[in-house]
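Here is the promised in-class demo. Please do not try to memorize the tokens; focus on the logic of going from shape to residues.
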């Protein structure tokens, strides 16, 4: 049997005035820009360090290409998280 917790009025009281205005909301443009920026970072990383990456992954033989792609995806992911955190810090939403 379903037993609801709280009321709608209580849940609505948690919403602050700034949330209603949309000032604290993170838009999709921010996420897209961080993703594209980190993709460019990952491609730049791959171009600059390609000979080193190939040399390091050659002992893996068949899995060498998988390791190369995994390294680029790892740089992309870490860069994306880094750009998102940097954006939040610069926007002043870090401490909230």
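The designed amino acids, position by position:
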């Amino acid at each position: 049997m379903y037993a609801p917790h709280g009321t709608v009025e209580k849940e609505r009281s948690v919403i602050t005035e700034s949330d209603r205005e949309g000032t604290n909301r993170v838009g999709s443009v921010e996420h897209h820009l961080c993703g594209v920026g980190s993709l460019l970072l990952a491609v730049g990383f791959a171009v600059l360090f390609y000979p080193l990456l190939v040399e390091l992954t050659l002992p893996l033989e068949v899995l060498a290409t998988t390791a190369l792609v995994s390294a680029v995806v790892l740089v992309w992911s870490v860069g994306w998280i880094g750009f998102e955190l940097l954006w939040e810090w610069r926007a002043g939403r870090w401490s909230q």
